[in-house]
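Thread: quick sanity check before group meeting

JM: Hey all, I'm pulling together slides for Thursday and realized we never actually wrote out the predicted structure for the chain we discussed last week. Dropping the sequence here so it's in one place. If anyone has concerns about the input, flag it before I start.
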Amino acid sequence: MVTLWKQAVRGVWRGRKSYLACIVLLTMGIMVYVSYQLLYVNLSSAQKHFYASQRFADGFASVDAIPAGAVKNISDIKGIARMDSSIVLDARVMGLSDTKIVTLRLNSFDPEEPERLNNFVLVKGAVPENGGLLIGETFAAANRLAVGDTIRLIVNGREIERQITGIAQSPEYVYVIPDTGQLLPDDRAFGFAFVPKADLEVLGSGRGIANRLSFLLEKGVSFRQVEAPLREALEPYGLRSLVARKDQPSHAMLQQEIDQLGNMSTSIPTVFIVMAVMILYIMLKRMIEQERVQIGTLKAFGFSNRAIVLHYLSYGGVTGAVGGAAGVLLGLLMTGGMTDLYLDYFSLPSIQVPPDPFYILMGLLIAVLSGLAGAFMGVRGVLRLEPGEAMRPPSPPVVKSDFFARLPVIRKLLTSYGFMAARNITRNKFRSTFVLLGMAFAFAITAFMASYGDMFKTLMLDQFTKVEVYDLKITLKNPAGASSVLETAGALKGVNSTEAILELPAELHLEHLKETVSLTALPDNARLYRIYDVDSGQTRGPPEEGILLSSTLAGKLKAKRGDVLTVRTPYTGDRDIPLPVMGVVRTNSGSSAFISLEGIWNTLDIPPTVSSILLSAKDPQAIKAELTDTKNVAAMTDQEEAKATYTDMFSTYSTLMEMMQGIGMIIAFAIITNTASISLSERKREYATMRVLGMHPKEIGKVISFEYWVLSLGALPLGILFTRMIKQAMAATIDSDLFTMPLHTSPESYLSAAVLCAATVALSNRLARRRISKFDMVEVLKERE
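JM (edit): ok, ran it. Output follows.
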């Protein structure tokens, strides 16, 4: 056995470049696995601890007004463990911006109830008494507010001043957005605050009157079981919305990010690990063929199949162990930086979760088992070899037909070097296929990584250039008459065109499936807000009748064209309105639904009202300044500012994008150089014979170069197909209710992948010529005698 171990060490050293390529692939795969799994554990652990410690509710209901006595009666509904009432009011903050409408969502709390639901965490300062408030950490940082500052608020038409007594975090506002209609937070324009209940009652509907309910469910009870009785009980109090925790905006964003991390922690590493296994398989298979005589000799001297197989398995085991250890170490280093990146967007308490040993050990185990699997597939042939058979070289393959004999015209087009290379490609189909697939996979990985940044740019910026092409969006506090609003907006100075839309929350039902979405009603001739189909590259108008679904939403409801959905909105009360599905469109905005503006007025039997006005204007800033103090304006969205927000977010990810592109380049280089090295090792005797016959290393190099360039060209279309397949697999992993991953790959990404692969092939050809020139021809020709 000592002899075999020495032979293993020498074998690994001889093929160190090929083994290094396998180690690189395994390292990358395990690095992504460990870092994403640990980040998944960190975020999910922080979420669970935060929710549990602050008693985050299982469900939420918004009503016009409800007295305390009614809340007590409703809390007795079977399945509800506890119900708290509170007051939630949106207040306009004055003096913080001349061009933004700054909104602070005021939440009441009872200072005498320390075990209240949805409690806050005090980051700094003190809990307020009457006349003070706590503000959110992200809002305070964005607007440079500190404990002790005073802010002016307008609440229900009353202007008041309140002193900031502290800074807080809340499980309801981990991701601070007003609703799921807004993808990114704008901490300068929207935040949350906590105000003592007695203080907020004065500003609301009066003492003992609430407008928001939060509740916990009994163990084993689902939201669906209590939804119907709750809805029935709350209808008399002006029910506006009733949602489970999963549809609460902040939780929905955080949970989708956590779920995507869990999915990506397995899908991305699998690609790298499978390629490493395949390379190990080819390497060990080639090694067995080259060492047939040694294997036969060992068997003749009494070495068992088990001992010989273990000897060759050690190659894969060591490769896996080294790659796994390096991957775990790099994964641990990545986790800290990625955790800090996520904390820039999710307001969670400091995450201090020690690395989970399970995932570290799993990373090592996956790497070692992958190495052993690749090695075992390559050495299975050892078990079938008999000593006598093994001690002589294998018979040369029989060529039953010559492809080029049937196409003599090709022979006339090619030089002698090209003809030799072409014959090599067709006569050793397994080797040629391996090189072709290796190059195609390298191209696909590089193109995918290069397009990673483009995908996020497309996802974000397409929304502004092909969907929301207005300059300014004015969101109203309360829906208003369409004609009067359009007339007023059209009279504003510098306005080129106007459009009115209606956005409202809706529950869509199909059989037993239900989804809560924002239903967007558009005018028939909409120009400022378009429905863009990313598959066809065409814009579509809203259907004259029925509803149009995004592909993500249709997939969740298992809906198709012709199905009839039942729809419930705040306008319908407890009535279900049937709407036929008129089509499914793939959008970048995740779960969305569209309907004609006139169609929704007729379907819901409501007056022609709208909730938002879209403007095309020369100077949006001047219009914002003019409308800042308008009472019925809830928010104004400037597209240029929104683009800047998206750009800032993308710049935060730029380092990650560059790292992913670097990984793609390393993997492509490792795959191409390794496949070239394996091919050269298999054909050492052939090239040495050519040299003995008088060919110069440069002439042999021309044969190799022609062969690799032909295979490279053949790998391009296959690589484009692989790129599409990788993107489709990733899209299935990370698509969410809020966005859909674009499948388009830019020509620039393909070009950069082609240039990198071409440079690597050129380098491999140069290295091959150098190795051929250094062959000891006598020793090479003696290898299989």
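AS: nice. The mean pLDDT is 81. The first strand starts at residue 59 and ends at 67.
JM: adding both to the slides.
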